[in-house]
Amino acid sequence: MRNLFPILTVVAAIFALWYAGSVALNAPWAYDKAERAGIELTTKELIADTMAQKKPKLPPPHQVGAEIWKTTGAMVVKGRAFSKRSLIYHSWITLSATLLGFTLGTGFGILLSVGIVYNRTMDMSVMPWVIASQTIPILAIAPMIIVVLNAIGISGLLPKAIISMYLSFFPVVVGMVKGLRSPDHMMVDQMKTWSASKGQEFWKLRLPSSMPFLFPSLKIAMAASLVGAIVGELPTGAVAGLGARLLGGSYYGQTIQIWSALITAAVLAATLVGIIGMIQKVVLKRMGMA
Fold first, then answer.
1. Within 10 A of 44 (CB to CB), how many other CB atoms are there?
2. Which end of the chain is more exposed for a tag (fewer CB within 10 A), N or C?
3. 103 within 8 A of 164, measured Cβ to Cβ
4. Dist. CA 70–CA 74, nearest whole Å
5. Residues 226/215, Cβ–Cβ less than 8 Å
6. pLDDT tens, 61-93?
7. pLDDT, tens digit, for every residue of 109-134?
8. Residues 6+ positions from 139 with CB-CB distance below 8 Å
Protein backbone atom coordinates (compact mmCIF):
# COMPACT_ATOMS: atom_id res chain seq x y z
CA MET A 1 0.00 0.00 0.00
CA ARG A 2 2.90 2.34 0.75
CA ASN A 3 4.20 1.82 -2.79
CA LEU A 4 0.81 2.74 -4.25
CA PHE A 5 0.44 5.99 -2.31
CA PRO A 6 3.07 8.01 -4.27
CA ILE A 7 1.65 6.71 -7.57
CA LEU A 8 -1.93 7.60 -6.61
CA THR A 9 -0.78 11.02 -5.42
CA VAL A 10 0.85 11.76 -8.79
CA VAL A 11 -2.20 10.48 -10.67
CA ALA A 12 -4.51 12.65 -8.56
CA ALA A 13 -2.30 15.69 -9.19
CA ILE A 14 -2.37 15.03 -12.94
CA PHE A 15 -6.17 14.77 -12.95
CA ALA A 16 -6.50 17.95 -10.87
CA LEU A 17 -4.25 19.90 -13.25
CA TRP A 18 -6.08 18.39 -16.23
CA TYR A 19 -9.48 19.51 -14.94
CA ALA A 20 -8.13 22.95 -14.05
CA GLY A 21 -6.64 23.28 -17.54
CA SER A 22 -9.95 22.23 -19.10
CA VAL A 23 -11.82 24.96 -17.24
CA ALA A 24 -9.23 27.62 -18.11
CA LEU A 25 -9.00 26.74 -21.82
CA ASN A 26 -12.70 26.09 -22.40
CA ALA A 27 -13.95 29.12 -20.44
CA PRO A 28 -13.60 31.69 -23.29
CA TRP A 29 -16.06 29.76 -25.46
CA ALA A 30 -18.49 29.43 -22.54
CA TYR A 31 -18.30 33.21 -21.89
CA ASP A 32 -18.75 33.92 -25.60
CA LYS A 33 -21.93 31.82 -25.74
CA ALA A 34 -23.27 33.48 -22.59
CA GLU A 35 -22.55 36.97 -23.94
CA ARG A 36 -24.43 36.27 -27.17
CA ALA A 37 -27.35 34.87 -25.19
CA GLY A 38 -27.34 37.94 -22.93
CA ILE A 39 -26.84 36.05 -19.69
CA GLU A 40 -24.20 35.97 -16.96
CA LEU A 41 -22.63 32.70 -15.88
CA THR A 42 -22.11 31.79 -12.26
CA THR A 43 -18.95 29.90 -11.35
CA LYS A 44 -20.93 26.66 -11.09
CA GLU A 45 -22.54 27.20 -14.51
CA LEU A 46 -19.17 28.08 -16.04
CA ILE A 47 -17.55 24.89 -14.75
CA ALA A 48 -20.53 22.80 -15.88
CA ASP A 49 -20.32 24.31 -19.38
CA THR A 50 -16.56 23.74 -19.71
CA MET A 51 -17.04 20.11 -18.69
CA ALA A 52 -19.63 19.35 -21.40
CA GLN A 53 -18.63 21.17 -24.59
CA LYS A 54 -18.86 19.18 -27.84
CA LYS A 55 -15.56 20.47 -29.25
CA PRO A 56 -13.53 21.65 -26.26
CA LYS A 57 -10.00 22.97 -26.62
CA LEU A 58 -8.99 20.60 -23.83
CA PRO A 59 -11.50 17.82 -23.10
CA PRO A 60 -11.73 16.90 -19.41
CA PRO A 61 -10.80 13.35 -18.35
CA HIS A 62 -14.40 12.12 -18.02
CA GLN A 63 -15.18 13.09 -21.64
CA VAL A 64 -12.09 11.27 -22.88
CA GLY A 65 -12.95 8.25 -20.71
CA ALA A 66 -16.51 8.20 -22.06
CA GLU A 67 -15.23 8.33 -25.65
CA ILE A 68 -12.79 5.47 -25.01
CA TRP A 69 -15.57 3.38 -23.46
CA LYS A 70 -17.91 4.14 -26.36
CA THR A 71 -15.30 3.04 -28.89
CA THR A 72 -13.95 0.01 -26.97
CA GLY A 73 -16.02 -1.53 -24.18
CA ALA A 74 -19.40 -0.60 -25.64
CA MET A 75 -18.31 -2.01 -29.01
CA VAL A 76 -17.30 -5.30 -27.37
CA VAL A 77 -20.67 -5.53 -25.61
CA LYS A 78 -22.43 -4.98 -28.94
CA GLY A 79 -20.25 -7.61 -30.64
CA ARG A 80 -18.63 -5.02 -32.89
CA ALA A 81 -15.11 -4.99 -31.42
CA PHE A 82 -13.52 -4.81 -34.88
CA SER A 83 -15.92 -2.29 -36.34
CA LYS A 84 -14.16 0.56 -38.17
CA ARG A 85 -15.48 2.91 -35.49
CA SER A 86 -13.83 0.87 -32.74
CA LEU A 87 -10.53 1.89 -31.16
CA ILE A 88 -9.78 -1.83 -30.78
CA TYR A 89 -9.78 -2.16 -34.58
CA HIS A 90 -7.60 0.92 -35.05
CA SER A 91 -5.25 -0.23 -32.28
CA TRP A 92 -4.84 -3.60 -34.01
CA ILE A 93 -3.93 -1.90 -37.31
CA THR A 94 -1.27 0.18 -35.57
CA LEU A 95 -0.11 -2.75 -33.43
CA SER A 96 0.53 -4.98 -36.45
CA ALA A 97 2.86 -2.37 -37.98
CA THR A 98 4.47 -1.77 -34.58
CA LEU A 99 5.29 -5.44 -33.97
CA LEU A 100 6.64 -5.98 -37.48
CA GLY A 101 8.77 -2.84 -37.27
CA PHE A 102 9.98 -3.80 -33.79
CA THR A 103 10.95 -7.29 -34.98
CA LEU A 104 12.81 -5.93 -38.00
CA GLY A 105 14.47 -3.19 -35.95
CA THR A 106 15.56 -5.58 -33.21
CA GLY A 107 17.01 -8.08 -35.68
CA PHE A 108 18.78 -5.36 -37.67
CA GLY A 109 20.06 -3.70 -34.48
CA ILE A 110 21.50 -6.93 -33.07
CA LEU A 111 23.23 -7.80 -36.35
CA LEU A 112 24.74 -4.31 -36.56
CA SER A 113 25.92 -4.43 -32.95
CA VAL A 114 27.64 -7.79 -33.46
CA GLY A 115 29.40 -6.42 -36.55
CA ILE A 116 30.45 -3.26 -34.69
CA VAL A 117 31.86 -5.20 -31.74
CA TYR A 118 33.74 -7.81 -33.80
CA ASN A 119 34.84 -5.66 -36.73
CA ARG A 120 36.92 -2.55 -36.11
CA THR A 121 36.16 -1.20 -39.59
CA MET A 122 32.44 -1.30 -38.89
CA ASP A 123 33.02 0.24 -35.49
CA MET A 124 34.85 3.21 -37.01
CA SER A 125 32.62 3.64 -40.07
CA VAL A 126 29.10 2.37 -39.30
CA MET A 127 28.62 3.55 -35.71
CA PRO A 128 28.91 7.28 -36.55
CA TRP A 129 26.32 6.83 -39.31
CA VAL A 130 24.00 4.99 -36.94
CA ILE A 131 24.15 7.96 -34.57
CA ALA A 132 23.79 10.49 -37.41
CA SER A 133 20.70 8.69 -38.71
CA GLN A 134 18.78 9.69 -35.60
CA THR A 135 19.37 13.41 -36.20
CA ILE A 136 16.96 13.36 -39.16
CA PRO A 137 13.41 14.22 -38.01
CA ILE A 138 11.08 11.27 -38.58
CA LEU A 139 8.36 13.64 -39.82
CA ALA A 140 10.71 14.64 -42.65
CA ILE A 141 11.84 11.17 -43.66
CA ALA A 142 8.50 9.34 -43.30
CA PRO A 143 6.89 10.87 -46.44
CA MET A 144 10.07 10.11 -48.43
CA ILE A 145 9.95 6.44 -47.41
CA ILE A 146 6.25 6.22 -48.26
CA VAL A 147 6.72 7.85 -51.70
CA VAL A 148 9.77 5.74 -52.65
CA LEU A 149 8.15 2.46 -51.60
CA ASN A 150 4.87 3.33 -53.33
CA ALA A 151 6.85 4.08 -56.51
CA ILE A 152 8.14 0.50 -56.55
CA GLY A 153 4.74 -0.96 -55.73
CA ILE A 154 5.13 -1.50 -52.00
CA SER A 155 2.29 -0.17 -49.87
CA GLY A 156 0.16 -1.08 -46.89
CA LEU A 157 1.79 -2.53 -43.78
CA LEU A 158 5.45 -2.67 -44.85
CA PRO A 159 6.13 1.09 -45.30
CA LYS A 160 4.82 1.79 -41.80
CA ALA A 161 6.86 -1.10 -40.42
CA ILE A 162 10.02 0.27 -42.05
CA ILE A 163 9.44 3.66 -40.41
CA SER A 164 8.98 1.84 -37.08
CA MET A 165 12.18 -0.11 -37.73
CA TYR A 166 14.04 3.15 -38.44
CA LEU A 167 13.17 4.45 -34.98
CA SER A 168 13.53 1.19 -33.06
CA PHE A 169 16.87 -0.18 -34.27
CA PHE A 170 18.97 2.62 -32.74
CA PRO A 171 18.41 1.88 -29.02
CA VAL A 172 18.98 -1.82 -29.70
CA VAL A 173 22.32 -1.09 -31.40
CA VAL A 174 23.51 1.17 -28.58
CA GLY A 175 22.38 -1.20 -25.82
CA MET A 176 23.78 -4.33 -27.44
CA VAL A 177 27.14 -2.75 -28.27
CA LYS A 178 27.45 -1.72 -24.62
CA GLY A 179 26.29 -5.16 -23.48
CA LEU A 180 28.56 -7.18 -25.77
CA ARG A 181 31.51 -5.11 -24.58
CA SER A 182 30.57 -5.39 -20.90
CA PRO A 183 32.68 -8.50 -20.01
CA ASP A 184 35.98 -7.33 -18.53
CA HIS A 185 39.35 -8.22 -20.04
CA MET A 186 40.05 -10.94 -17.47
CA MET A 187 36.94 -12.86 -18.52
CA VAL A 188 37.80 -12.50 -22.21
CA ASP A 189 41.40 -13.59 -21.55
CA GLN A 190 40.15 -16.60 -19.60
CA MET A 191 38.07 -17.68 -22.62
CA LYS A 192 41.23 -17.42 -24.72
CA THR A 193 43.19 -19.58 -22.29
CA TRP A 194 40.51 -22.23 -22.81
CA SER A 195 41.10 -21.95 -26.59
CA ALA A 196 37.51 -20.82 -27.07
CA SER A 197 36.56 -19.81 -30.60
CA LYS A 198 34.95 -16.46 -31.45
CA GLY A 199 31.62 -18.22 -31.67
CA GLN A 200 32.01 -19.85 -28.26
CA GLU A 201 33.11 -16.54 -26.76
CA PHE A 202 30.00 -14.89 -28.20
CA TRP A 203 27.46 -17.50 -27.11
CA LYS A 204 28.98 -18.38 -23.73
CA LEU A 205 30.23 -14.97 -22.55
CA ARG A 206 29.27 -11.88 -24.53
CA LEU A 207 25.63 -12.68 -25.34
CA PRO A 208 24.65 -13.69 -21.76
CA SER A 209 26.45 -10.59 -20.43
CA SER A 210 24.47 -8.38 -22.81
CA MET A 211 21.02 -9.45 -21.57
CA PRO A 212 20.74 -6.81 -18.79
CA PHE A 213 21.51 -4.19 -21.45
CA LEU A 214 19.30 -5.66 -24.17
CA PHE A 215 15.95 -5.64 -22.37
CA PRO A 216 15.97 -1.94 -21.37
CA SER A 217 16.88 -1.18 -24.99
CA LEU A 218 13.97 -3.32 -26.19
CA LYS A 219 11.56 -1.33 -23.99
CA ILE A 220 12.72 1.93 -25.56
CA ALA A 221 12.65 0.35 -29.01
CA MET A 222 9.06 -0.86 -28.54
CA ALA A 223 7.84 2.60 -27.55
CA ALA A 224 9.75 4.15 -30.47
CA SER A 225 8.32 1.55 -32.83
CA LEU A 226 4.77 2.49 -31.84
CA VAL A 227 5.55 6.16 -32.47
CA GLY A 228 6.95 5.21 -35.87
CA ALA A 229 3.81 3.25 -36.79
CA ILE A 230 1.57 6.19 -35.86
CA VAL A 231 3.76 8.69 -37.73
CA GLY A 232 3.81 6.35 -40.73
CA GLU A 233 0.01 6.54 -40.92
CA LEU A 234 -0.05 10.34 -41.16
CA PRO A 235 1.47 11.07 -44.60
CA THR A 236 -0.43 8.21 -46.26
CA GLY A 237 -3.85 9.64 -45.45
CA ALA A 238 -4.64 6.30 -43.81
CA VAL A 239 -8.25 5.53 -42.93
CA ALA A 240 -7.38 2.98 -40.23
CA GLY A 241 -5.02 3.02 -37.27
CA LEU A 242 -4.47 5.32 -34.32
CA GLY A 243 -2.63 7.75 -36.59
CA ALA A 244 -5.69 7.89 -38.83
CA ARG A 245 -7.86 8.65 -35.77
CA LEU A 246 -5.53 11.49 -34.82
CA LEU A 247 -5.56 12.80 -38.38
CA GLY A 248 -9.35 12.58 -38.69
CA GLY A 249 -9.81 14.32 -35.35
CA SER A 250 -7.50 17.17 -36.36
CA TYR A 251 -9.33 17.65 -39.69
CA TYR A 252 -12.73 18.08 -38.05
CA GLY A 253 -11.67 19.65 -34.75
CA GLN A 254 -12.71 16.57 -32.77
CA THR A 255 -10.39 17.07 -29.81
CA ILE A 256 -12.12 14.35 -27.77
CA GLN A 257 -11.34 11.84 -30.55
CA ILE A 258 -7.73 13.04 -30.66
CA TRP A 259 -7.26 12.65 -26.92
CA SER A 260 -8.94 9.24 -26.81
CA ALA A 261 -6.55 8.01 -29.52
CA LEU A 262 -3.58 9.47 -27.63
CA ILE A 263 -4.57 7.82 -24.35
CA THR A 264 -5.19 4.52 -26.16
CA ALA A 265 -1.73 4.73 -27.75
CA ALA A 266 -0.18 5.39 -24.34
CA VAL A 267 -1.99 2.40 -22.79
CA LEU A 268 -0.93 0.21 -25.73
CA ALA A 269 2.71 1.29 -25.33
CA ALA A 270 2.63 0.70 -21.58
CA THR A 271 1.18 -2.79 -22.13
CA LEU A 272 3.82 -3.75 -24.69
CA VAL A 273 6.65 -2.41 -22.52
CA GLY A 274 5.16 -4.25 -19.53
CA ILE A 275 5.18 -7.53 -21.48
CA ILE A 276 8.87 -7.03 -22.28
CA GLY A 277 9.48 -6.31 -18.59
CA MET A 278 7.83 -9.61 -17.59
CA ILE A 279 9.92 -11.52 -20.15
CA GLN A 280 13.01 -9.75 -18.79
CA LYS A 281 12.29 -10.91 -15.25
CA VAL A 282 11.82 -14.53 -16.35
CA VAL A 283 14.92 -14.62 -18.56
CA LEU A 284 17.26 -12.90 -16.09
CA LYS A 285 15.97 -15.05 -13.23
CA ARG A 286 16.66 -18.23 -15.17
CA MET A 287 20.12 -16.90 -15.96
CA GLY A 288 20.74 -16.13 -12.27
CA MET A 289 20.95 -12.38 -12.83
CA ALA A 290 17.76 -11.30 -11.01
1. 8
2. N
3. no
4. 5
5. no
6. 999 999 888 888 777 777 777 777 888 888 999
7. 999 999 998 888 888 888 888 888 88
8. 231
Phi then psi dihedrals of residue 55, to 5 deg: -130, 70
Exposure on the CB side of residue 65, measured as CA atoms within 13 A: 5
Tell me the C-alpha distance between 246 and 252, whole Å.
10
Rounded distance between C-alpha atoms, residue 55 and residue 33, angstroms: 13
Distance CA 216, CA 200 (A): 25
- Distance (Å, whole) CA 133 – CA 167: 9
Q: Which residues contact 20 (CB under 8 A, 6 or more apart)?
A: none
- Please say whether the beta carbons of 177 and 134 come within 8 A: no
What pTM was computed for the model?
A: 0.86
Is the Cβ–Cβ distance between 168 and 228 less than 8 Å? Answer: yes
18/9 Cα distance (integer angstroms): 14
CA distance 51 to 58: 10
